[in-house]
Amino acid sequence: MNRIYFDNAATTRVDDDVLKAMIPFFTQNYAIASSIFSHDDGIIAQEALEGARGFILNKLSAKDYRCIFTSNPTESNNLALKGASFAKKSGNIVVSKIEDLSIINTVKFLQKKGFEIRYVDVDGKGFVSLDHLKQLIDDNTILVSIQHANQEIGTLQDLSAIGEICKQKNCIYHCDATFSFPFLDIDLSKLNIDMLTIGSDTYYGPKGASALIVKNSLELEPLISGGYQEYNLRAGTQNIPAIIGMKKAIEIFDKETFNYIKSLKDYFLEKINQIPHVRLNSPQNASHPGIVNATFLYIEGESLTLRLNLKGVSVITGSACFSKSLEASHVLLSCGLTHELAHGSIRFSFGKYNTFEEIDKTIEYLKEDVAFLRNLSPLYKED
Q: Which residues form the Aminotransferase class V domain (predicted)?
């Protein structure tokens, strides 16, 4: 069975050109990156590493920033929040209620260490309240962490407005752009962002690479002690093949790819109207080009996900059951959905290897499975 993969917001297939760029750093240039005082093999690796670093900084117009390579966005987010907080020693941290769990659980950890955590409200589509943000920031605020694109519903926050508020309030702004870059251009020369997290495997790059982009003037405490890699902020051997793959994935991601993915999403949104009693949780405007979150009323998202999986379609439910929890999504609850609506949600995330035919097939499966499950539901009454 040829499976249909609509979980591209979780991870993507590595592009063939990305894989080709990586292979020499496994088989030929496999030395650890080292200084000019080392051997030539180490110097070749070091030059490749610094080339990738410079490329990413240039892509982001990040002139006065450092690019700190890490193993994944979770580590980057931890370094940003813990590193800045430990450097400041005390104070409060402001985050939105719908951040990725790598932010939510990190601030819960920091709360146990004595830091005060404040949560910004969002509206029904996940947009943060700028007025509430202004109210929460005070003279003791260490940093604000508000993402760009939401991982579940695709909402895109106004980075310019958030950055301006942080600038006026004189506090650090960290933005998790794992799900938006390089789908959307980010120009750090025009935005007041002090720290930016980017990933790799959500845009056809490899797992094992991420970066935290940090202003040169910003002080961080390292989380890992050891050697002197990554500006003394992230000890340990760098994963050069993955970093090279990350660079290549950014390099080849273009407007044509963006437009194709968005056309898939638009087509899906048109077709899903054929199914009655569907609530779209993603905003129509200011939304990730490939993410759709929908609630199928009167049924459990877990049941629908499992039935689709048996037919070869990979999607995830809006609840966190696949992380060994049956709790409803904190994102959807924060947007005001009831537990019942949150449990009935499914995230579809499209990528460049998907086709319109796959969407047609999935819509037919959805029609069948939704009708079947609603017939079993005591809450459902036919129109």
A: 4-361
